[in-house]
Every structure is written in structure tokens, then in C-alpha cells.
Design goal:
mainly alpha, disordered C terminus
Amino acid sequence: MATLATFVTPFSMAAVSIALPAIGAEFGMDTILMGWVSTSFLLSSATFLVIFGRLADIHGRKRIFTCGAIIFAAASFAISISPSPDFLIFMRIVQGVGGSMIATTSVALITSVFPPGERGKALGINSAAVYTGLSAGPFLGGLLTQQLGWRSIFLVLVPLMALVLLLISTSMRGEWREAKGESFDFVGSAIYGFMLVSTIYGFSILPSYAGGVLLAAGIIGLVAFIRYESSARSPVLDMSLFRGNRVFTFSNLAALINYASTSAITFLMSLYLQYVRGLDPQGAGLILLSQPVVQALLSPIAGRLSDKVEPRLISSAGMAIISAGLFSLAMISTETPQLLIVANLAALGFGFALFITPNTNAIMSAVEKKCLGVASGTLATMRQVGQTLSMGFAMTVLADYVGPVQITPPLYPAFMSGLTTIFVFFALLCIVGMAASLARGKVLNNKGLQNGKPEPLGNGKPASAATNPK
């Protein structure tokens, strides 16, 4: 059930990326506005992840998960009948709220059920579902767009979420709320939301004056949030999760950098393949399929390895491969053979598989069980913030090189120059991420995961106090 829902969200994101040119053509949208079709979803999702993670710990992960599925399905149907770009983007924001409720609880539910010795394998299967969604998204999204129109993508999401809701009602027993009875931090949540929206939105509209003001407000909000949460009786995000917990801190930092340096790849390559190379949505989707297929196949293997081999070594190797792949993408031209592009994307998929599942296993194994929802929400926030920053940077560079206009043949050279700049920056950022991954320290002891037998993680506290499934 959680795995199926985990499949649907990335599927929708990948499918929408391939459909952006068709959406833009129907509504007359420029490149920047097309980017906001994706960014609006990511921004709203990122804003609520930690908040819903905390609510799930208090009121129940199943309950929040169910509400998320309902909101996601309703918003998907509304998008399928969008009369204007403004309505579409607004409903993408609502859809992002539902997506955040699913994302922040799915990993926490899996971690709650599986003991440490089996957790890597379970998370690997869950990661495989993510990449299966990413795999199916470009191909099926392109097929649906070409045969039935882009609206059919969102209609397909409705019965998929209906199936999730059916599985919840028939097969999910009990509730998981280890923080039951604790109060919810409304003030901290408000500061957190303001900080995140100001920072991400401000970054996305740089170098404008308003972007600088919002970014500065976001930084001030971050300082205020840390100070307030450090003294709050029941914080929405417990700062002690970061203080002294080197594994949790650096694993989340590595995740943020990974997503910030890779999430715009599908968006950029979709534009490149359909505009510059002249492929139809289905053809572009087939090429983009190579990256997530490799991820889906190798993620369970990487998950099992992370139960036995030091996760920082596997994840860091993955980041190195991703960096090399991005440098290679920076050198593509209007004449690059399609087979070489496929091989490059497959290599990136290999790097993603090595990084993400072991890194997720390290994060979820570094906290007490009552904090699993917040830990899952924090990780999901790193993912969504990273994805939003990645899209924001890509749109900023394209706005500088191409401008807020539709991409036409005379602008192809400028577009390709912007593409090179973006991919080189992302490759360098991955090297920083590799350093963060290596800096986390050891996650395993001689008996396996540290929370298999509680041991200190820098702050003298056990990684987990519970190993039995609920």
C-alpha cells in the first residue's frame, strides 16, 4: 500500500515533465511558466513535509497517509479539467499538499513495521517503487500525451489513488503514533512554513530585487526557527536530532545536495530532446526511461548491501558516479548520438541507486522510533527542497540565457549554452555532496545497523529504542 502510493507521486512528476511542452502549447506558456507547473508542486510539498510528519507522529501515520491520498486524488481530477494556467498551477499546489502527506508517512510506516536487520531491504523495495514510477512516467506520460492529451495523465492518477485507499481500508490494521498525547507546535510550524516558502520562492526568482528580499527574509526566518525550536516544549522539528547526531545531520545534508544537483535533469532533457532534437513526447520518454529503469533494478540490491556494508561508502560511490555523469551531460550537443545519451542516463541511474537507498537507511536508523515521522518528513523535505532548488536554479539560468519566451530554433544555441552551465554546476555540487556523505561517520557496528543494538551516535543517546514491528 505504502509502496504503491510511493510509486504514484514520482510517476506523476516524471509524466508531467514530459508533458510540459504540450501543456505550454495549449496555454501559450513561456519556459519560466512551464517550469512553475513542476515547481509549484515541489514548493507546497516541501513546505508541509515536516509539519505533517510531526502530526503523523502525534495523531497517527495511517490517518495522515489516508488524508493525503484523498487530497492527491481530488486535486489530480481538478487538474485534468483545468481551464487556465493559473488554475492548473493552483491545483498543483493543492496536489503538493496531498503528496507531502503521503511522502512524509510512507517511509515512516515502513520503518515502523520492519526491524533494523530487514529495513534496508524494505526501503530498497520502496525506493525501487519510486524509480519504477520515474521509469514509467516519461514513457507512459509521453504515450498518454501523444495519444490522449496531457490531461489524461492526471485522470490516470485518480483510479491509482482510489486503489491505494481501498488497500488502506481493507489491509492496514492499527495505527502508529508513538508521540500520542504530545502537543503540536503551531508557532514553530508557522515560522517553518514562512522560512521555507520565502527561501525557496526567493531563490527561484533571483536575481530580481524581490528574490533577494525574500531570500534574506528566509534566512532570518531560519535563525528564528532554530532559536524557537531549541527551547520549545514539543517542537515540530526536534533540534537534538541534528545536534551531536552526525549520521542524521550529514546524511540529510548529502540528500539535500544530491536532489539539488540532479532533480532538474528530467525537465532539462525533456526540453532538449523535444525542442532541440525534434522528438515527439513518446520518443523522448523512451530515452529518458533508461535512467529510472536502472535505478529501479538496482535499488533493492543497494538496500540489502546497506544492511551489511557501511552506507557512507556505497552512497559516496554513487555520488561520484553521478558527478561524472553530469560532467558528461554538460558536453552533449545537437549532434550527440542518442545511444550515448541513453548510456549516460543509465550511468546516472546506477549512481542514484547506490546513493539514495543506503542514505535513507542511515537516516531512518539514526533516530528513536517516536521520531520516525519527523525523520521521514525531514528526509522528504531535503528531497523536495533539493528538487525545488534544482528547478529554481535551472529556470534562473534559462531565464538568463533564453529569456521568458517560448523556445524556438533561433534560441537553440543559447539554450544549449545554458544547459552546459547548469550541468557543470550540478556536477561540482555533487562533489560537495560526496564530501558530506563521507563526513557522516560510521553507521554500522560489528553486529550490523547501530539501532539493531542501541549504541551512541555522538550524542550519547541510542539510535533507536525499539526493534520490533508495531
